[in-house]
Amino acid sequence: MSISELRKLYSENKVKPSEVVRSCLDSISSNDSRIEAFINVIPEDAMKRARHLDLESSGGMPLYGIPIAVKDNICTKGYETTCASKILEGYRPPYNATVVDRLLEAGAVILGKTNMDEFAMGSSTENSAYKITKNPYNTEYAPGGSSGGSAAAVAASMVPVSLGSDTGGSIRQPASLCGVVGLKGTYGRVSRYGLIAFASSLDQIGPITRTVEDSAAVMNVISGWDSRDATTIPDSTGDLTRGIEKGAEGMKIAVPRGYEEMDVAGEIKEILKGTIEKLEAENANVEFVELPDMDASIACYYILANAEASSNLARYDGVKYAFRAESESLEEMYERTRGEGFGDEVKRRVLLGTYVLSAGYYDAYYKKAQQVRAMICSKFESLFSRYDLVMLPTVPGPSFRIGERIDNPIEMYLSDIFTTPANIAGLPAISVPAGFAENGLPLGIQLLAGYAGEAKLLRGAAVLERMYGFNGNKTE
Amino acid sequence: MNENSYETVIGLEVHAQLLTETKLFCSCRPEYGADPNTRVCPVCMGLPGALPVLNKESVTMAIMMGLALECDIAPESVFSRKNYFYPDCPKNYQISMYDKPLCGNGSLKIETDAGERTIGVERIHLEDDSGKMSHETGRGSLVDFNRCGVPLIEIVSRPDIRTGGEAAEYLMRLQQILRYLGICDGNLEEGSMRCDVNISLRRTGSGKLGTKTEIKNLNSFKAVQKGIEFEVERQRSLLERGKRVEQITNLWDQDRGRLVMMRSKEEAHDYRYFPEPDLLPLEVQGEWIEQAREMIPELPIERERRFKNEYGLSSYDCGVLCADKGVADYFEIVAKTTGLAKKSSNWVMREVMGELNNLACAIEDFPVYPENLAKLIKLVQDGTISGSAGREVFEEMIKSGGGPEEIIKRLGLEQISNSIEIESIIEEIISDHPDEVSRYREGKKKLLGFFVGQVMKKSRGKANPKLARDIIIGKLGG
Ligand SMILES: [Zn+2]
What pTM was computed for the model? Predict the structure, then answer.
């Protein structure tokens, strides 16, 4: 079920929120022991809220009775929010993230918190302190990450929609690997208040859905200026669900020159080729261009993200909340709490981040990365002054076997090569399911738009969605 | 070795807590002495996911201080994170301005024994305060996060200060300006104004700075002066013995009046500063600066100058009166109402300030309103009561808070200016003291004072002494 289908059923009074929520909860209880997408499910409270909604009319609530799963790095008042880390085990925030407040106001029902790579660091959801989420298309394969739980929950039809967070591709990459739609808006489009920070200048919350239209509908609800987040931008896009059916005609789309030689799966090249032909057939204007240097982008990303992470994660010290290791002295408490509370990937990144910020290395790494970032931003700016969209793969290939890359961080990091530029430049980007690899696992195609270009982005994504013929009916 | 072979180079870092309605990055209201951890929210506690939003009022206050110290106000300044682990710092980083501060390039004039000197102000920047630790036997270490996120400005001087006395004078001047601006209560004991000092010695005439050491925890003007004097002596004695000065941080032990080493250079932090990604660069437009400028009242130096011209008072008197804005305001009301500047200044400096001291009370809470003091001064001036009765009325006004006329009536202190009444008293005295009368008439004119004294005694101080004097001369001859 997609959001739009559910909305239709509600408006015709054919179904009640409690029935929909019940069926999702049933799906979770029958599927999640296999997929392990959820860290926490809150069936009683979800049913209570659904029954409450049964008595209200859906009027004015754009997500009335829509069940939703929320990534476990988004604060939910009174419900455990752990970032899939031992260090936050048992932590119940005393407040809701702004997006959670907005979802609840819009009538959505939160069913639970989804698994992720610890503190959103990873691309496979294997770095969780609690469980390893499986790809619903083949449980021996990874769902991608870090929003792997959110993507798998939607792909396995446990919920019609979920929220993820995207720092370097953490929404789009798992969406691609799980065959669902994943959207990251312009930096500042969605409030980060209540999103437990990984890298503040890159993080954005976004929806993972079955359809592009659903993605727009959720974005409508969660986006907009927030007095509690100084980096949010005024919402000027209007209703994003309108105009997405305008089609491809007249759109100017840029594709990386020489994509045929890129180190990506053959099926993806085929899909791109076919897409270009179809777009041209629909009177879109496709041109090949030089994209900003992907290698520089990913190096810059790992320096900035880890630098910010080393600082953002400094607050987990055992003094104030959640996990504290037994110890004799303050120094020892810090060391043991962080030593035992954080997993390897988090420690690796905190160390890298600390290193690139430390006196003597700052200029060579952090400052340099900032300069590269400015350069990438200005290249994109000039690119988007000439084109509406950029089209490229989301991920170089389909999913990989669980455990296959976990000991090879560099290989894992490189799977973000096509997704990090959007975060570096703060631009909106979306991954749309584009077909399947030979092994039967999903593949995604990514679109990028210029600053605050969500409307164009969704319109383009709707075109691709129609071309690939998915339209939200994949695994049912 | 010659006393003067070394020159002392001192720089001060002063933290002043701003009197904003709310904290620097959240809407909590700071309150000194509130129950621990009752003035906190997810933002100032640095809870996971919470984000800072800048309080504009604190920026305005910082600009006011910048303008008062003749600083340039940066069109764009940037908050950075200063990373360090400490239990009272809930995020384990402080948000402060690092390489792009809000104000720079200012100066402050101070009076020294050697005349007026100008101390450079390198920068003024905004930052958030940390919490407070207390270590209690039996209860372990406790943290109170109430102070977390309270806005501070840090005022960093250039190393232009040469003596402990100058440092204390500079600090006092800063305190005075902060209070005039109404942006900080300047309370050193409560820590709303804090001072760290950097000290180094160099050979006189040498352009090269010596190794500097730091003193923290100086919470009174006296501590600043004494701490510096101690450290200067310590460094001088090391240098004179051919030893090296190590780069250390000292704490001033108030109780024992000496320095205690806190940490050495090896333990110095690498703060790993980088721009705070949760806040946009702070842009201060011309209009904002103008608004801040309009909020700046007349500052102490200008006011002293004006008092000198307008009221014809001595520099000393002007300095004393203007030291506290409230006192200066009080004086101005009194002086304007009475039109008697010098008399008003005497009353305010002696009686009022003396009582403020005794009562340990702020001028704002002083029970005698300036309007009432002005009335009293006028009543003494026009002879309604004597000067000594005036002081009695003043005492009573402090106790009861009433107006002078009512008190004079109640205590029956009106001066007798009725010549018939005084004449009858004088006649009694003449008949009681025949010897003195004849000696006076023989030329012992000094006895006039004796007769006036007798009149005052008999009238219990109420007789108008001038009138009495005239009548006595009339009766006994000049
Ligand atoms: Zn607060």
Answer: 0.90
